[in-house]
Amino acid sequence: MSPALVAQRRSSSTSQKVKVDFDQSTGVAVMHMQSPPVNSLSLEFLTDVCIALEKLEMDKSCRGLVVTSSQPKVFSAGLDILDMYGKSPEHCAEFWKAVQEMWLKFYGSDMITIAAVNGSSPAGGCLLSMTCDYRIMADNPRYSIGLNETKLGIVAPFWFKDTMVNTVGHRTTEMALQLGLLYSPAEALKIGLVDQLVREDQVLTTATETMTKWLAIPDHARQLTKSMMRKPTIDKLTSNREADVNNFVKFITKDSIQKSLGMYLEMLKRRKA
Prior knowledge:
Layout: H1 3-9, E1 10-14, E2 18-23, E3 28-33, H2 43-58, E4 64-69, H3 89-107, E5 112-117, E6 121-122, H4 124-130, E7 134-138, E8 145-146, H5 158-168, H6 170-179, H7 185-191, E9 196-198, H8 203-215, H9 219-238, H10 241-252, H11 255-272
Parallel strand pairs: 3-4, 4-5, 5-7, 6-8, 7-9
Antiparallel strand pairs: 1-2, 2-3
Helix pairs in contact: 2-3, 3-10, 5-6, 5-9
């Protein structure tokens, strides 16, 4: 095959915070999150991710998507606190709509989605990985994953909870959410929060190899089955989106919550210093 034809069959698109490589010969795209330092889910980043995902969904030749991080040691640190601290109610509402949109697009995607979790993945980062069909994590005991919102004085909304219940079951989720637990890769594998552990340098190649098994299943049958499993959870948010936004804004703008977010940001500053 000529170099020109190879280049034609591989396409790449890059926004400031997201790089997508699409191989038309396999029908598989790789989304590299590249929002330094820790891929925090800011309004701008969430918007870029949603636009990239929408473009892939519209391309019917794209059947699978691997999501991974270009940042060392972290998959995604979760929601950007700077989009929730000291911001107007209007900004908080816009931010939360973007979080909802990201979840709806990933959780309801027709594509096969595999999370190549090559670093720590707390809170919203854990949510993003749970929206995927399969999760492969780097077997590094220094990394952790989980919904730890209560540790910051924040309550994970019902659809975060529902996603985790669908992944690891009710009792495990109840313990995890109340205690704000972060699991090591080995613990995450044990409870089913991730599906496979591999060496850090093999996460992306393993995701690509795993994708071939999923691609062997006829799309229509797999998509209908996925929809059947996930639609009730998706419908619960789509029918309550506005109320969910209002609840978030009301909660996050409370003085007590703003104070605890401020204290957490101060702690991060001291840690960096």
